[in-house]
Amino acid sequence: MSQEQLGTIKISDETITAYAAGVTLAIDGVHELTGGLTDSISKNILGKESSGKGVRLTRSEEGLILDIYIIVEYKVKIPQLAWEIQGTVKREVETKTDLTVLEVNIHVQGVNLPGEEDVR
């Protein structure tokens, strides 16, 4: 049976970063995602919160590179958490988008201490 070509499917960077952010936040030990300069500009100048806050996406011919900026829970084993995030995000994004994820880089920006609102 032949398959007819009907067109192309393009998935926006914002959709991918929002999905990666949701996957990351579902992992135990991640307190929150933290935005960088682009998220601050988006929130302050454009007046809207980015749905992919804390996730930066770079596309190349070979695939995707994701940089994820997190605040971790107190007493979490950071290397173990980072490996779990890398594996889970890579697997989930590749499964949902059919795109190749080359790298998932984890940037720990701080630790959420008990009894404190947010420490960075």
Short description:
This protein has helices at 13-25, 37-44, 78-97; strands at 30-33, 55-59, 64-73, 101-112. It is α+β, with helices and mostly antiparallel strands and 120 residues long. The chain has a single domain (13-112), classed as Cation efflux protein, cytoplasmic domain (Alpha-Beta Plaits, 2-Layer Sandwich), CATH 3.30.70.1350.
CATH architecture annotation name: 2-Layer Sandwich
CATH level 4 superfamily: Cation efflux protein, cytoplasmic domain
Distance between the termini: 57 Å
Query: Can you tell me the CATH topology?
Result: Alpha-Beta Plaits
Structural class of the secondary elements?
alpha+beta
Strand portion: 25-35%
Shape: elongated
Number of strands: 4
CATH class category: Alpha Beta
- The overall number of domains is 1
Order of helices and strands: HEHEEHE
- Poorly predicted runs are none
Alpha plus pi helix count: 3
Reported for the largest beta sheet, the result is: 4 strands, mixed
Task: Give a written overview of the molecule.
With 120 residues, the protein is of the alpha+beta class. It has one domain: Alpha-Beta Plaits. It has 3 helices and 4 strands; from the N terminus they run H-E-H-E-E-H-E. Strands 1, 2, 3 and 4 form a 4-stranded mixed sheet that branches. Strand 2 and strand 3 form a beta hairpin. The chain is elongated. The model has no long low-confidence stretch (mean pLDDT 87).
Q: How do the strands and helices of this protein lay out in sequence?
A:
Layout: H1 13-25, E1 30-33, H2 37-44, E2 55-59, E3 64-73, H3 78-97, E4 101-112
Parallel strand pairs: 3-4
Antiparallel strand pairs: 1-3, 2-3
Helix pairs in contact: 1-3
